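Subject: mismatched residue count in predicted assembly?

I count 323 residues in my input, but I want to confirm that the predicted structure covers every chain. Input:
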Amino acid sequence: MDHSALEQIIVCPACKKSLTKAVDLYTCIDESCRSAYPVFNGIPILINPKNDLFEQKDFETKGDIFFKTYSNPLIRFLKDIQPDVTFNNVSEKNYLTISKILQSSGHIRILILGGSVDGVGIKHLKKVLKEGDLLVETDVSYGPNTTVICDAHEIPFASESFDLIIAQAVLEHVLDPFQCVREMHRVLKNSGLIYAETPFMQQVHGGKYDFLRFTDLGHRRMFRNFREVQSGLVAGAGSALTWSLKYFLTSFANSKKVDRILSYGGTFLFFWVKYFDLILNKTKGSIDAASGLYFLGKKEEGYLLSDKELLASYRGFRYSSEK
Ligand SMILES: [Zn+2]
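Triage response: the counts match. Full output below for your records.
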C-alpha cells in the first residue's frame, strides 16, 4: 500500500478541501470547515462530523458495525458450512473483462466502495495489479481489506482521482444511491470505468441497512451519466427462487430463534434450486426475473443517456400497454 499516493488524493468529505495531517489526526484547511478526522489503527476515519448515520467514535474500536459476528459456536459452524444461495458465474468473467480493459493503462488507481471483504470474483482483478498501482478499499466497517473508513455519500477523495470504481452489492445498502453514484462520477477520471452489481429480486439481507432494489432499466438510469460498456444479470431466476423459497420459510417465524432455524433450514433445503442458473444466467427471458444485475460503464464528459434511449434499451419480453 502506497500511503503517499493515498494521501495525495484524500480530501475533507464535508467540503472537499485539502486536509493537513499531524500524527493521528487530519484537519481540514478550510477556515469555515475545520473538520477533524482521527486515524485509528492506521486507518483514517473520514466520516463527516455532521454525518447523520455514522459517528467517528463508532470506529474507535475494531468492532464490526455492518457484518454481525456470532459468538455461538453452533451458529458459527452452520454459517461456515452453509452453501451460498446465489449462483454467480458472472462476476468473475466481468472482472476478467475489466482487467483486460485496464491492462493497457499505466499505473491504475482503483476505489472499491464497501470493500472491507472481497466481493465475488474480485481476486481476478487484484491479481493483475502492478507495482505503483493504487487500490483503496473503503467501507463503513472493518474487514481484512479496509484502507479507509468513509461513507459513499461523501467520498473523501479529490475529483478525477480514480481509473476504476467498484460498488459490488453496495448500492442497496445506502440511503441515497443516486447521491453515491454522483460522488462516484466526481472522483472517477474521464474515460474511467465504473462497475456496479446491485440486487433486483432479493429479500432483505442487510438487516436494517437494506433500502432499495432496481430493475434493469432502473439500474441503468442511475448510471445515465456513464456510457455503457456492458451490462446484464449477475444471477438469474434460479437464485431468485432459492432466495424466495428460503424467505417463504422464514416468513413463518414469529421469533428470532425460529427465524434462525428456518433460515438455515431453508438454505440447506433449497440451495440446489440456484443451479437452474447454469441455464438461466444465459437466457434473455431472465433479465426481468434476475436476482441481481450489473452495469459496467465509462465516464465521458458531457455524456447523458436520455430517457427515450433508456426505454428503447429495454431487452425483456414483458409487453407494455402501448404495443
Ligand atoms: Zn472541510
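Residues 217 and 314 are 7 Å apart (CA to CA). Marking this ticket as 'not a bug'.
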